[in-house]
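User: Here's a chain of 214 residues. Predict its fold as tokens.
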Amino acid sequence: MAHARHMSEAIHGREEARLERSPVWPHSGDMGNKSPPERVYEALERLPPNVVGEIIEGELHVSPRPRTMHGRAAFRLGKKLGPFDQEPDTEGPGGWVFLPEPELHLGGNVLVPDLAGWRREHMPELPDVTGVELAPDWLCDVLSPSTEAMDRSRKMTLYAREGVNHLWLVDPRIQLLEIYRREGERWQRLGAYTGDATVHAEPFEAQKLNLGSL
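Assistant: Prediction complete.
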């Protein structure tokens, strides 16, 4: 049984690596008479539910669904920030609308951060759509081995270009929080915190965050 378990883990690891190394879809045989953006988006829609697809500068990138530690960190962070997503007549700072794993349609790209937030003055009503075309005011990506390189490079560049104002990167493996603010089309890192640090992080300074709880 131990041997079978190790074999299963090895196969799963190879599958994650294969997904990460195979970014470009669809294949030429799927092209038909449709435009490249339409073909790529149709390929994204055909993906199985056990993967996450994003379209980055015309290429479909496929990564495994988040593992348990990743998902728990995103859930706990969303819960900590919950008081900011309250109706105006309830307790809490309010003023924000949050979505977990939204599909963002920004400048021809389709991006899926772990959490995203919009100030209520920018999104007074939540649109009933699959893809949100309004750039978030804040978002967070939880890092994992299969996605960290992309999250730190091309996705950060696109987020800045499309007008996201605040970005957090969380790595639950080492209890790391990095805080960024956009300056023009570049990111300024405001701080990086690890371990059991307690942080009041822009733009949610009113909420105390204990990294150990993530």
